Amino acid sequence: MKSHLNSFLFALLCPFGMFFSFLLEADPTKDPFESLHGPNIYSQDYINQQPGVLTLSELLKSVEKSYPLVLAAEKLLTETEYNYLAAEGAFDLQFKSMGTTKPIGYYTNNAADTVFEKPTPLGGTSFFAGYRIGRGKFPVYDGKRETNDYGEVRAGAIVPLMRNREIDKNRADLRKADIDRKLAELSIQKLKIEVIKEATKRYWKWVASGQEFLVNKDLLEIAKSRQQQITQRIKLGDIPKMEGTENDRAILQRESQFVSAEREMQKAAIDLSLFLRAADGNLILPSTDRLPIGFPKPIDYKGLELDKSIKIAWKFRPEIQDYEFKREKARVDQDMGYNSLKPQVDLVVAGSQDFGPGSVTRAKPELEASLVLNVPIQTRRPRGMIGAAEARIAQLDQELQFSKDKIKTEVQDAISEVIASAKRVTVTQSEVELARKLEEMERERFSLGDSTLLFVNIREQTSAEAAVREIKALYDHHVAVANFQASTATFLQNSPTP
């Protein structure tokens, strides 16, 4: 009778003994199964609590300084800067000189003429100053080449009164070069938005894959740590032998999931290394010890205002400014066409003074003013330029309107995505809490002998899957935030996320 009583008490206490012996092996202050959800935590200060963690800002600084496509785009800006410098060269000071000699003939003479010319953007006005000297015998018809003994100094200006007064080829080329420079800056901004968005997505993918890896790692460790207790209970006859086989199956299943999760984490790190670079441009493969412990909290989507966000996007998106600059460039061609329709009326003013012995008729200073008139008879070229420019402007107006509509839909979709993903995070959090409660209850039933390991494994697997769904929901939310930032060009505004 005593032996039967002892057997009954041992069988009754064995499940509790197995369970509490498992607890004693772990941290007595922590639920040993709590680690199943442990990696998926988030805090607003989640990064600052971890020394050495790879932050998103560090990644984006690396993109700014070392990403090849960004550096290549900056070379385009350098090219346009040099093109602008070349356009400014149209207003460079020029020096011209000519010398002639007639050593044989009835009229033997020598003459030299030098002049400095300086075009300016001041109403198309050009200035000139020069010196000439003519010695020897000159025919009457060539008398202007003759000077007094020390030569003649002259200076003057050419002032357009109609054509080329408001604009001319030099100023048009300069304006176009300046616009090209601004367009190059916008190209860099567009590229940076796309690159930053992609880098941000890959960063959060890396964070998510690290958390999924930890979830699967904990799930595997739970099954392995339970193996010894399962074996002991089978030996004592407390549970059937098939429970050991079930745990072996669970271990193999979880090992397979663990290997897959590890591969996904490695792949995410490799993908991220394309954007994470050293100062010399070499790729940096982020190690697992640089993984953040989780995601930041979802943003407060109630603060997002659709109309305000659309206006911000229209103001800062490079595409809008790109079309505006292209229209301005087309208007330069239009202005040049209207300029060519005008008659050319130039006022030329020049003063001169001869020095040294010679003719008294050249001894006094002279001032001369003249008008140069050039009237176009046929105007097909300027009318063609004007028509082409107007057609181009009309085309750009339609493209600008479509671009605004497209940006509007992108902002609407991005806000919708942010809101939906934030709500999904809340739903998955509730799912995880319920799944963990069911898991704990099923584990307690198993310890009392009212359940089987198959159901415990199912509950644990369900909890892990719920945790992974929450991780994916958080990943999707932060990707949605990145899409919203890209749609409103927040990346270029140095302003915090709404």
From TrEMBL:
Keywords: Cell outer membrane, Coiled coil, Membrane, Signal, Transmembrane, Transmembrane beta strand. It is found in: Cell outer membrane. The keyword Coiled coil applies. It comes from the Bacteria. One of its GO terms (molecular function) is porin activity. InterPro entries: TolC-like (IPR051906). Residues 1-26 form the signal peptide. Residues 386-413 form a coiled coil. One of its GO terms (cellular component) is cell outer membrane. This is Uncharacterized protein.
